[in-house]
Design a protein that fits this description.
The structure holds two protein chains of two kinds. Chain A is an all-beta fold. Chain A has no helices and eleven strands. In chain A, the strands form two sheets. In chain A, strands 2, 4, 5, 6, 9, 10 and 11 form a seven-stranded mixed beta sheet that branches. In chain A, strand 7 and strand 8 form a beta hairpin. By secondary structure, chain B is mostly beta strands. Helix content of chain B is 0%, strand content 50%. In chain B, strands 2, 5, 6, 10, 11 and 12 form a six-stranded mixed beta sheet that branches. Chain B has a four-stranded antiparallel beta sheet with strand order 3-9-8-7, with no helix packed on it. Chain B has a two-stranded antiparallel sheet with strand order 1-4. Chain B is globular. Chain B starts with a strand and ends with a strand. The chains are: A mainly beta, B mainly beta. The interface between A and B is medium-sized, with 23 and 26 residues.
């Protein structure tokens, strides 16, 4: 299994809603990442978990809350988002710890629309 | 600081044409260099990499050579196909350091049949 699976693929939410994005990998990777990608832009790093510990938070607003329940799962909890948070949210994983080999395995993304 | 500069797109070519997408970098150390590709509606996937100067990465007919003297990592393919239509990101990474991956802005490639 060489996949990173993200659910849901599409999500529409209001500014007062609470929702979650989920990411799962079964490759035994020990680092997992959340990226945000706006249209026609490169991905921007949000969070990194290495060995299930939050190792990087790129000054992301608290309305985004990551969680890593175990080495295979990564969640992103969303609350009180703004329309400008609408984007493609990409999960990725990498072998070993953070950027150990430099190769990231990305999921297909969750496209979020905030109304 | 470190940075990656890619040629502006979109690049439009006919099928079987020769492809070059330019990538240059500015680095304070000795990074590894990567090309990632993003097909429509998908996440990014690693296309090829080179970890030191003069290394050549290759995959699916694409090649790129790590040129330290010109600080470049240009992507080439001899004969493109419609299925190569995608966005290509050049990236710089210091492995085993607590640094971020630095992506270029991406180059959109359209291949016409």
């Amino acid at each position: 299994d060489t996949e990173v699976t993200q659910t849901p693929k599409h999500l529409v939410m209001g500014m007062t809603n609470k929702k979650s994005l989920k990411c799962e990998q079964h490759m035994g990777h020990r680092a997992m990442y959340w990226y945000k990608q706006k249209a026609k832009k490169p991905p921007e790093l949000m969070f990194v978990y290495s060995y299930e510990k939050l190792s990087i938070n790129e000054s992301v607003p608290s309305r985004f809350s990551p969680e890593c329940p175990n080495s295979s799962l990564l969640n992103l909890h969303l609350h009180a988002l703004q329309p400008e948070d609408s984007a493609l949210y990409l999960c990725a994983s990498s072998p070993g710890g953070y950027l150990n080999t430099g190769e990231l395995f990305f999921g297909e993304g969750s496209r979020l629309t905030v109304l | 600081g470190d940075s990656v500069t890619q040629m502006e797109g979109p690049v439009t070519l006919s099928e079987e044409a020769f492809l070059t997408i330019n990538c240059t970098y500015t680095a304070t150390g000795y990074p590894s260099l990567f090309w990632y590709v993003q097909y429509p509606g998908e996440g990014l996937q690693l296309l090829l990499k080179a970890t030191k100067a003069d290394d050549k990465g290759s995959n699916k007919g694409f090649e790129a050579t790590y040129r330290k003297e010109t600080t470049s990592f240009h992507l080439e393919k001899g004969s493109v196909q419609v299925s190569d239509s995608a966005v290509y990101f050049c990236a710089l990474i210091y492995m085993n350091r607590d640094d971020k991956i630095i992506f270029g802005k991406g180059t959109r490639l359209h291949i016409l049949p």
